[in-house]
């Protein structure tokens, strides 16, 4: 089911999703058929709409997230060439720890790792204090948004790092699972968020060193 966004009727949303499906079908030509792409686009829109507090940007976020999901599906199914390891960071709401970890790893890796993040119960928006703490390290987070955990991202990831999400993460053989015991920055003042940021950064740098030294 496709819901209307703020200020847009359902028919207009449907036309936008058709356009997104057309663009992604061209992008994934020879990998996925148009029907598969359209299914993912509409499912992605509904997944994001289910937890969104502001829906006016949903079509644009749908285009980004659907593209990531199709990339992950292609990777998981062996339909696309894999050249670097993929790391998934998972917490509850995907607005704090997992977003910081993903941004920091992407910043340090310079393309040597594919990075994803998700939430077992995504909701809300990334607090400005989280964005500000990363901005101090010249790590951008303004374009990030909370995303739900999906099956294909788990299947595509080589390393899954959980941070306080309980048993929400399915276990797939052949993957490395890590649990980082890191405090939740929600509601904390900036000096505490900085300490959490720096702790995550130490973990991220250590993981990157391990991945870089693997044959």
From TrEMBL:
Residues 85-210 form the Phosphotyrosine protein phosphatase I domain. The keyword Mitochondrion does not apply. Its EC number is 1.20.4.4. The keyword Oxidoreductase applies. The lineage of its organism: Bacteria, Bacillati, Actinomycetota, Actinomycetes, Pseudonocardiales. This is Arsenate reductase ArsC. It comes from Amycolatopsis mongoliensis. One of its GO terms (molecular function) is arsenate reductase (thioredoxin) activity. It comes from the Bacteria. Pfam families: LMWPc, Phosphatase-like_N. Keywords: Arsenical resistance, Oxidoreductase. It is an enzyme of class 1 (oxidoreductase). SUPFAM superfamilies: Phosphotyrosine protein phosphatases I. GO terms for biological process: response to arsenic-containing substance. InterPro entries: Phosphatase-like_N, Ptyr_pPase, Ptyr_pPase_sf. NCBIfam families: MSMEG_6209_Nter.
């Amino acid at each position: 089911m496709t819901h209307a966004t703020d200020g847009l009727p359902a028919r207009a949303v449907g036309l936008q999703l058709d356009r997104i499906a057309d663009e992604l079908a061209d992008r994934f030509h020879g990998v996925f058929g148009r029907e598969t792409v359209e299914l993912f686009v509409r499912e992605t829109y509904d997944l994001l709409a289910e937890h969104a507090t502001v829906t006016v940007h949903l079509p644009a976020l749908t285009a980004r997230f659907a593209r990531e999901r199709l990339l992950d599906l292609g990777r998981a199914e062996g339909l696309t060439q894999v050249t670097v390891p993929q790391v998934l960071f998972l917490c509850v709401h995907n607005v704090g720890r997992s977003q910081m970890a993903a941004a920091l790893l992407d910043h340090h890796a310079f393309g040597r790792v594919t990075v994803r993040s998700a939430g077992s119960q995504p909701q809300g928006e990334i607090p400005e204090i989280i964005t500000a703490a990363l901005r101090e390290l010249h790590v951008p987070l303004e374009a990030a948004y909370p995303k739900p955990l999906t099956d294909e991202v788990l299947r595509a990831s080589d390393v899954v790092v959980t941070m306080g999400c309980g048993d929400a993460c399915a276990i797939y053989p052949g993957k490395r699972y890590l649990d980082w015991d890191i405090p939740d920055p929600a509601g904390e003042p900036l000096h505490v968020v900085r300490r959490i940021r720096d702790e995550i950064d130490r973990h991220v740098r250590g993981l990157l060193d391990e991945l870089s030294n693997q044959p």
